[in-house]
Amino acid sequence: IFYSYGSSWSLSFETPCRVQEARGIPAVTMATEQSQVLELFEKPFRGPSGGSISFPTGEGIGTRIGTGARPPPELGYATSLQRGRVFSVFIRAHRRAARSLCEYFMRARNIGELTSLANACRNLVNEQLFIYCLSSVIIRKPELRRVRIPTVVETFPSKFASQEMLQQAGNEINRNPARTEPIVINQEFSGTLIKPEHRLSYWREDYGINSHHWHWHLVFPVEMDIRRDRKGEIFYYMHQQMLARYDMERLSHSLNRVLPLTGFREPIVDGYFSKLTVNNSGRAWGTRQDNTTLKDIRRDDFGLGFISISDLELYYSRLLDAVHQGFIQDRQGNRIPLTDDPPNRGKRGIDILGDAFEADAELSVNYPFYGDLHNFAHVLISFSHDPDFAHREEVGAIGDPATSMRDPTFYRLHKFVDEFFQEYKLQQRPYNNEELGLPGVRVVRIGVLQDGVPNNLRTGWNQREFEAGRGLDFGGSAPIRLRFTHLDHRPFDYHLQIMNTLPAEKDVTVRIFLAPTLDERGNRMSFMDQRLLWTEMDKFVTKLTPGENKLVRSSRDSSITAPPEITFRELEAGREITSGTQAGVEFGQCGCGWPRHMLLPRGMPQGMDFQLFVMLTDHAVDKVEQVIRGRPCTNAVSYCGILDSKFPDARPMGFPFDRRNPAMINGNVIQTAGELAAQFDNMVMEDIKITFVGNQLQRA
After folding, report:
1. pTM of this prediction?
2. Which of 126, 256, 480, 574 is most enclosed, with most CB atoms within 10 A?
3. What pLDDT band is residue 585 in, cutting at 50, 70 and 90?
4. What CATH class does 30-43+72-147 carry?
């Protein structure tokens, strides 16, 4: 019989860090500043006169359109990227342009100065570059953090809805300006269900997932002179967790887990036709046929020199040698040990390898030797349909963080990347009893409760609307709304019953994971088989009093998710601007974080078996002493860290599933996660079901 716990309090994940409060700002001033910023983000493709803009599709593709004035020297490389073209953080020349424009914007001391600088250059620089840099500086600069960035779904609707649907929306509103019905986005607009892979289109093309990926690369930029704590490790962990969630979704459809690319010379089995357009011109993203073979590329139109497959293979071989040799060499030839148990809490090997693989030339220990493997791989695949510009085709969707997760090959590429990191992780020793245990603390029982039903979570379809007319100019003033259908679930609570047998209070970190119980063949999984399927659901700090403790934790407080996307209209109405103190406003999220509506996997209509794993660890060991300044963006700390601060958990990301299991504990052989949990009082597992109910899901 499931029991209902009484209410209890728990500290948030970031509680041990002290938050410095900012001096209050009048709400009317903040609203004015927010309005100024929204105007900069609205209709980014409009021309110098404020009207719509169209770019030719022939020889003059991407011709820069400006006021005719000479670009100020302060813009540096910012004007090197043509207007109307795709901006990609995976391309080094584009990153150089972004750095110049960010440095130009960073001169602003307040919102007014930022607005003046932005208006002076917006018609001289690439539109997507402009929005990226504007967003980056607002997040980075403390003086500008009072304002919020509107959702990228409305700023660039053409990255989320097909050209056909956007054109339909424009035609409908022109025929009937009084129309109030939204345009419904078809979940199958990029392909039919003839191909099994297309069963996952709703997941890969979810607006929240792709928005998260865009924001993640915004707050973890490459070569922007930004030193984010444990950036390389977060690169590894966040992408590994996305793969685990994708694999859970595949199992929900009785599909096999994703297979890695076996190299860069084998044909890419799955093609991709995004049906998206780059900008107001209607120019389509590049497409890729099934069984496309990758080739060396040279795209001078994108500022790319010659990129050879042989170079990528050489970089990979050198990185793999470093893993197997246990050290990596810097530019001076010094050997840097690779270990996740560095002395004095030094930089872990996984962090060093992440910086070298992604790669950031400013953070990699030896960029010329280990190369730019991850970024170049994205570029190689994104131009596979037109590697030499012979057909004048645009870059593919996998070349932009806002659209790359739509492509099935994104997951095969990142499975290839993750297998490299797992090769390193398997070189590390298993955790010992001291690291895994927590004497004096016992988890008695755990469970989940959704709408009064224990241990049976329900998922289904929900809908969300956005205004396409905020980003694209349809030639009218009437709002054009797009309605997206997406996976969702009702909120639920975790219930934990914990005994503290110590004579005093004890601060602990609560770690919650979820994984499917059965593999593709319907068999229970070993620890090693299930290890990469454990997805972090939540992590938080709480204080246990002596004796029994009953905790209730809402799924809405997850350490990996961000609140729903905030729209232009909501910001205009004053959402999060007039409520609370300035400190409360600055404590809001910055857009980075897994979408809350995608926290749970789909499950199956008949119910799908999952396992919940809860582990308590000693916060005295976990804590990281630091001071958080300004708006820390802590809603999705496990995936996004804390802005300008250290990652608030000293243990390796993914602990305890980031390493192989101990072969034996206390004389008992360990072959499954359940057998591991049975050896420690601070761990417990619970079987739950997730049932997909489709359109029968009750709206929250």
Report:
1. 0.91
2. 126
3. very low
4. mainly alpha
